[in-house]
Design goal:
With about 280 residues, the protein is mostly helical. Helix content is about 55%, strand content about 5%. It has 8 helices and 5 strands; from the N terminus they run βββαααββααααα. It has a 3-stranded antiparallel β-sheet with strand order 1-2-3, with no helix packed on it. Strands 4-5 form a two-stranded antiparallel sheet. β1 (about 10-15) and β2 (about 20-25) form a beta hairpin. α4 packs antiparallel against α5. The structure holds zinc ion. Zinc ion binds near residues 124, 128 and 218. Zinc ion binds near residues 124, 173 and 218.
């Protein structure tokens, strides 16, 4: 049998704005106003529960996460956030000038920094894959390598899940970085190695990076999940769009812009200055 001809289960979900989303294995998320629209977009034989009629269901999407799996992540995130906040009062947040201050020479510092960032980025995406249950569903868990050290993971199907599972999937990457950061703060408390502060600075940068709400990073997607609208980015400018949601969305975008300025002022600029000074000293 031809691979493309295999039957796929169709999934429907009603969003809180009354619209319905539709998806099947390997497809994009589709927005439909009501069930009747289905007959307009396909001539597929459907029964009442929108399973394909008279055929075996071969390709299905993964089920949402268990409560235990979600709560475990929320709990670990809360604990590591609390630990991080306590240590932030003691040691402050290390800005970009700490990144290359590893206690080694400049070239080794650059290699260590890039390697650490790369490994963290990889584990970050791996956490999304675990929480999106991509293994066994998408090739290589749906991970894609974009630019230097930038990975993305395919997670459209989580829109069919409940909010808790959706948010845990999107939080999983940041949660990992928070857990790692709290462990590093604890380690630093007992052993004042400068390299640990360098790692903590990188982790702060990575977490704050996700809060650039005007860009399609994790926190932008979490906000979308909470508002319960996967198409808000296209729709918020429309005059007939929900006014309250549109206002929230614009406010979040402005906030994201300020976060971007924080990253430039406290991380990018100090890092460039430290590179200049380190090379001047070589
Ligand atoms: Zn992420």
């Amino acid at each position: 049998m031809n691979q493309d001809k295999k039957l796929k289960k169709l999934y429907f979900k009603k969003l809180s704005n009354g619209k319905n989303i539709l998806m099947s294995y390997g497809s994009n998320l589709l927005l439909v106003d009501n069930y009747e629209d289905l007959s307009n977009i396909s001539d597929l034989p459907l029964d009442d529960s929108f399973f394909l009629k008279d055929g075996e269901i071969e390709k299905i999407l993964p089920d949402e996460n268990s409560n235990f799996k979600n709560i475990l992540l929320f709990l670990l995130t809360f604990i590591s956030l609390s630990i991080t906040l306590v240590f932030t009062f003691i040691f402050k947040i290390p800005t970009g000038r700490y990144i290359l201050n590893t206690g080694f020479n400049i070239y080794l510092s650059i290699i260590i920094t890039l390697t650490f960032s790369f490994i963290v980025a990889l584990i970050h995406e791996f956490m999304h894959i675990i929480y999106a249950k991509n293994f066994g569903y998408l090739k290589n868990g749906g991970i894609k390598f974009k630019n230097i050290g930038v990975f993305t993971v395919e997670i459209d199907h989580i829109w069919l899940w409940n909010k808790k599972s959706r948010i845990s999937t999107l939080m999983a990457g940041i949660s990992f970085e928070l857990i790692l950061m709290s462990l590093m703060y604890i380690f630093y408390f007992f052993n004042n190695y400068t390299i640990i502060m360098s790692f903590i600075s990188i982790l702060w940068f990575k977490i704050i990076w996700q809060f650039q709400l005007h860009k399609k990073y994790d926190v932008h997607l979490i906000a979308m999940m909470i508002i319960d609208d996967p198409f808000i980015e296209q729709d918020y400018k429309n005059l007939d769009y929900n006014k309250k949601n549109a206002k929230v969305w614009i406010l979040l975008k402005i906030l994201g812009f300020f976060v971007q300025i924080i990253l430039i002022v406290f991380w990018a600029v100090p890092l460039l200055f430290s590179i200049y000074n380190l090379f001047k000293g070589v």
